[in-house]
Fold this protein.
Amino acid sequence: MVESQNNPKKMMWTTLAMMAFSTVWGFGNVVNGYVYFDGTKVIFSWVVMFLLYFVPYALMVGELGATFKNAEGGVSSWVNATMGAKWAYYAGWTYWACHVVYISSKGTGGLRAMAWGIFGNTRWYDGLPTAWTQFATLVVFLFFCWVASRGIPVLKGLATIAGSSMFIMSILFIIMMFAAPAINPGAGFYHIDLNWKNLMPTFNVKYFTSLSILVFAVGGCEKISPYVNKVKDPSKNFPKAMMSLAIMVMVSAILGTFAMALMFDPKVVNANLNEYISNGAYMAFQKLGEYYHVGGLFMYIYSWCNVIGQFSTLVISIDAPLRMLLGSKEAKEFIPKGLFKLNKHGAYINGIWMIVVLSGGLIAIQAFVPNAQAVMAQLVKLNSTTMPLRYLWVFAAYIALRKHQKSFETTYQMTKSQGLAYTAGIWCFLVTAACCIFGIYSPDPFTLMLNILTPIILIALGLILPGIKKYQEAKAN
């Protein structure tokens, strides 16, 4: 019995590849790529992003995970081991701060999904004054902050179920969409013309300021780092799993794009950009149901899966990143002691109040946006410029690891070449930083202001807290 615990059965590389695929990829990525990059013209960008960014990113995560296999803090632990405690605090703060925007988008997304699930469209919801929809979003957000403060665990299980069902529906959508023309040839599908003009993007301001959408879409594979050493023969099979992941994601993105191209004319999409950013996924499942003569069945299933997914993710995003930030060893050295206060349910109550102020403030200020569709579009863009900031720490930790590689033992390396390793780390760091900076630009002055001020406020707060902690200690002494 003891022997079996010490030598647990190793997982196959195919299992890891599927786990990573379901973690990284979702149908929303296909829709956003199609909407933001002018239909089939996104295919070129997907291929380049996968080959020159996603593959080295995934392999670097593998090396970090294999080197620090017993570290439970993820990216913060990697930064702590390679760069020191203060940088680890900043890494943990960045991870938490990115979720401030993400949290505010979950309430908006959940209400929109509910409108589709109840009414079968969002005409009534989108017709409401923005102040009303934002007030409703704020009420939902505050309710789930209360749920998080009570330590109710059931939603974590719901998030897993909803995530799995959404993943399955994403794959089924592609399969069923390609089968639809054979089953219902008279449904009026669009013709896909695969000439050079329809595949090559236009390299203009809109293109470069939207690249953060693709970086955001393919990021997050550091979540699978704890499983590197659970794979049989990791030095051989982990890169195999990551290459398989990259191929599966690339195939899914390309086939999903073609499936969308059968349904939606890019010219119509470009003319109604906010509508398709907000409702594109639901409209796609609505059309799929019509092709199969089942009405809105697929759309209703997708909507209610999304309702559960959005609201359960909202609770987890309030609770989990906060616990990671305040539960780390370096947190006590740099964060004021007041934020560590636990209530009787074991929740960091003052930390939750900080989330209420920051995410609640973002929800409230968006009451000045023209309508609910514009709010959703704004949040998608804001998330794409803030969430990838946490990936910068992955690449910084990798560069630092290779710099001090003699100090660490590992079962897997992306490459033996130091030059190639440095090049990959610096390249991915610069691509991520550039996409986040370019993504800030918007022709709308209010959106531009929000895109600039949000990261500045969050970064400033992260810099101020160690100063407050230092002042508290000086006063105590």
Observations:
- The radius of gyration is 23 Å.
- Confidence is low (pLDDT under 50) at residues 1-7.
- DSSP finds 22 helices and no strands in the chain.
